[in-house]
Amino acid sequence: MPVEEPIETVTPLSQHDRGETYLTPAAPLSVMPEHDEGARRSRYRKRWIVASLLAAGLTLGLIFGLPSAIYAWNHVSTDDATANSHVTYVSSRVSGLAEDVLVDDDQYVEAGTQIIRIDRMPSSSATPS
Fold first, then answer.
1. pLDDT tens readout for residues 41-85
2. pTM > 0.85
3. Alpha carbons 47 and 44: distance in angstroms, whole number
4. Which sequence spans correspond to the domains of the chain?
């Protein structure tokens, strides 16, 4: 194993030094890494593979995840909820059984529109005694 020569420097180590010549020992070869070109290529190849996989994952996440995220941000959904709405209760001024309902649920009707047909025969006379 070759012996390393100390490196001479004339720059002071701090502002309190007077500019004397200092000897700085070189690092021993046992702790210095060897420059292996194959290991360097392998390290760069691993970095490129990891970066490519991350870029592909990010791209797929944006393609498939972003539309559903935008939909979820702009739409409200629930499994069991109540909605605030305007409800109008209808009460009749005549008695009898409903024979037919002439409108559907949530259908808009104008004032005065017939919404139910009442049975003309009273319920007591419709059942045989």
1. 888 899 999 999 999 999 999 999 999 999 988 888 777 777 677
2. no
3. 5
4. 7-74
